[in-house]
């Protein structure tokens, strides 16, 4: 019987998720933001900001903290380490409650400071765990969106924009329904994707990240009984918006309802879908020979066929965007649903935000790498166009319409549909038309590679 590896092994080879194994380095920027460590870090930040704000609230029994104590508290956030996270996990082994473990860890940090020790019971004051968790999750998403997700997407958009401009004048045969169609340019097809992604990027960036600090069922029950004269809603709004930089949600149950999360994840999903569409198209263009891929010494395309240079980056991107979308769709559909004032089904699902967004980040990286390998093959593009003279039928019948010639569409349909066309055949047809000579000359000078409309200008404008 084969020996089993140690279950205590934490090597990449033993990771269940490829994000923590094979692809660990490629999603490393997300790890401190959306991991268990990241969640603990944000919990400490929220507890600290709530505690400091309480000291400034004019509450009986809690005077404003000194600058030294504020510095110590905020230093716990800025210097939060993996060892600190492990210390909290060790406390959790006793409490069997992750948020309470953070509270106890904070209070233990107060032991050498008399001012903080005297006020230690105001740590987590009037809070339910979800006050800490929902704000922490929003902060995690805020950082992940700003520092990793959007920059990765913007790199792809920048690459595509450069290619749209660079290939703006390179003619390419279109295919609608897989059949030859009116020509375009390579740059215009890239510009189409850029325009879609720019809109999708804005939708992701503009989703407000909501949070609440309103107690066990959203009514400030405990707050109001302890200090009935305090405007707790205004205070909570101040902490959420000014202290944490989030958007205050005044109406919740025990949990913030997660509708904004669904909106954010749906926006990411739509962006991913655009990129799946693009990855498949580029895969097809590579297959047609429109693009070559730069070679790298030592790489192998197939274990059996030495000639192969496979479009693996675009295939990897497509697969990982698909995984991201499957997970994001579940998050979007599940998170806004909670039984009565709360159940715990959202908690375990929220721990997979990093997995869902990790696959999107991985796909951005694959797509960017694939784009960097592409080289335009103008010979293949030109040859494809030169074998598709039938695409000029649209131009010819439209000019005939403009000059009121009889049944232009029907004439071109009978002449071209389902038949191989050559330059001589198309020019012979034009020569026999009852058009002004200037119009005939214009049509006779046209080739599939010059019948481009505004494609180049549109590509350069994006």
UniProtKB/TrEMBL annotation:
<comment type="pathway">
    <text>Purine metabolism; IMP biosynthesis via de novo pathway; 5-amino-1-(5-phospho-D-ribosyl)imidazole-4-carboxamide from 5-amino-1-(5-phospho-D-ribosyl)imidazole-4-carboxylate: step 2/2.</text>
</comment>
<dbReference type="InterPro" id="IPR020557">
    <property type="entry name" value="Fumarate_lyase_CS"/>
</dbReference>
<keyword id="KW-0658">Purine biosynthesis</keyword>
<dbReference type="InterPro" id="IPR024083">
    <property type="entry name" value="Fumarase/histidase_N"/>
</dbReference>
<comment type="pathway">
    <text>Purine metabolism; AMP biosynthesis via de novo pathway; AMP from IMP: step 2/2.</text>
</comment>
<comment type="function">
    <text>Catalyzes two reactions in de novo purine nucleotide biosynthesis. Catalyzes the breakdown of 5-aminoimidazole- (N-succinylocarboxamide) ribotide (SAICAR or 2-[5-amino-1-(5-phospho-beta-D-ribosyl)imidazole-4-carboxamido]succinate) to 5-aminoimidazole-4-carboxamide ribotide (AICAR or 5-amino-1-(5-phospho-beta-D-ribosyl)imidazole-4-carboxamide) and fumarate, and of adenylosuccinate (ADS or N(6)-(1,2-dicarboxyethyl)-AMP) to adenosine monophosphate (AMP) and fumarate.</text>
</comment>
<dbReference type="InterPro" id="IPR013539">
    <property type="entry name" value="PurB_C"/>
</dbReference>
<dbReference type="InterPro" id="IPR022761">
    <property type="entry name" value="Fumarate_lyase_N"/>
</dbReference>
<dbReference type="GO" id="GO:0016829">
    <property type="term" value="F:lyase activity"/>
</dbReference>
<feature type="domain" description="Adenylosuccinate lyase PurB C-terminal">
    <location>
        <begin position="338"/>
        <end position="451"/>
    </location>
</feature>
<protein>
    <recommendedName>
        <fullName>Adenylosuccinate lyase</fullName>
        <ecNumber>4.3.2.2</ecNumber>
    </recommendedName>
</protein>
<dbReference type="Pfam" id="PF08328">
    <property type="entry name" value="ASL_C"/>
</dbReference>
<dbReference type="Pfam" id="PF00206">
    <property type="entry name" value="Lyase_1"/>
</dbReference>
<comment type="similarity">
    <text>Belongs to the lyase 1 family. Adenylosuccinate lyase subfamily.</text>
</comment>
<dbReference type="InterPro" id="IPR004769">
    <property type="entry name" value="Pur_lyase"/>
</dbReference>
<dbReference type="InterPro" id="IPR000362">
    <property type="entry name" value="Fumarate_lyase_fam"/>
</dbReference>
<feature type="domain" description="Fumarate lyase N-terminal">
    <location>
        <begin position="21"/>
        <end position="319"/>
    </location>
</feature>
<keyword id="KW-0456">Lyase</keyword>
<dbReference type="InterPro" id="IPR008948">
    <property type="entry name" value="L-Aspartase-like"/>
</dbReference>
<dbReference type="InterPro" id="IPR047136">
    <property type="entry name" value="PurB_bact"/>
</dbReference>
């Amino acid at each position: 019987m084969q020996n089993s590896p140690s279950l205590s092994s934490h090597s990449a080879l033993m990771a269940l998720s490829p994000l923590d194994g094979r692809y660990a380095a490629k999603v490393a920027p997300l790890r401190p933001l959306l991991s268990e460590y990241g969640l603990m870090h944000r919990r400490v930040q929220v507890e600290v900001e709530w505690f400091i704000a309480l000291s400034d609230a004019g509450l009986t029994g809690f005077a404003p903290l000194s600058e030294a104590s504020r510095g110590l508290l905020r230093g716990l956030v800025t210097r939060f380490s993996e060892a600190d996270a492990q210390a909290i996990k060790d406390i959790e082994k006793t409490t069997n409650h992750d948020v309470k473990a953070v509270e106890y860890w904070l209070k233990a940090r107060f032991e050498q400071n008399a001012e903080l020790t005297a006020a230690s019971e105001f740590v987590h004051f009037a809070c339910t765990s979800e006050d800490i968790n929902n704000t922490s999750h929003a902060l995690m998403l805020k950082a992940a969106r700003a520092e990793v997700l959007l920059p990765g997407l913007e790199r792809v958009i920048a690459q595509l924009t450069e290619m749209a401009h660079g290939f703006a004048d390179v003619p390419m045969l279109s295919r609608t329904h897989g059949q030859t169609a009116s020509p375009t340019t390579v740059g215009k097809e890239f510009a189409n994707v850029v325009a879609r992604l720019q809109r999708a990027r804005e939708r992701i960036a503009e989703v407000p990240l909501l949070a609440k600090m309103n107690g066990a069922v959203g009514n400030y029950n405990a707050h109001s009984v302890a200090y009935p004269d305090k405007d707790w809603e205004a205070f909570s709004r101040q902490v959420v918006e000014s202290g944490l930089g989030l958007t205050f949600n005044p109406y919740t149950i025990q949990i913030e309802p997660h509708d904004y999360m669904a909106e954010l994840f749906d926006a990411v999903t739509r962006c991913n879908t655009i990129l799946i569409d693009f990855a498949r198209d580029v895969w097809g263009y590579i297959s047609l020979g429109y693009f070559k891929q730069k070679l790298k010494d030592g790489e192998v395309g197939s274990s059996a066929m030495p000639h192969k240079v496979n479009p693996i980056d675009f295939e990897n991107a497509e697969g990982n965007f698909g995984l991201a979308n499957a997970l994001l769709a579940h998050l979007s559909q599940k998170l806004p649903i909670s039984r009565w004032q709360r159940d715990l089904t959202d908690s375990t699902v929220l721990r997979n935000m990093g997995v869902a967004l990790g696959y999107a980040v991985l796909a951005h990286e694959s797509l960017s790498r694939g784009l960097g390998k592409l080289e335009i093959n103008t010979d293949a593009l030109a040859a494809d166009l030169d074998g598709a003279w039938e695409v000029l039928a649209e131009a010819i019948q439209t000019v005939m319409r403009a000059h009121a010639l009889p049944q232009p569409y029907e004439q071109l349909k009978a002449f071209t549909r389902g038949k191989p066309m050559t330059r001589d055949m198309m020019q012979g047809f034009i020569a026999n038309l009852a058009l002004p000579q200037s119009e005939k000359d214009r049509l006779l000078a046209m080739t599939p590679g010059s019948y481009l409309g505004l494609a180049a200008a549109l590509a350069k404008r994006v």
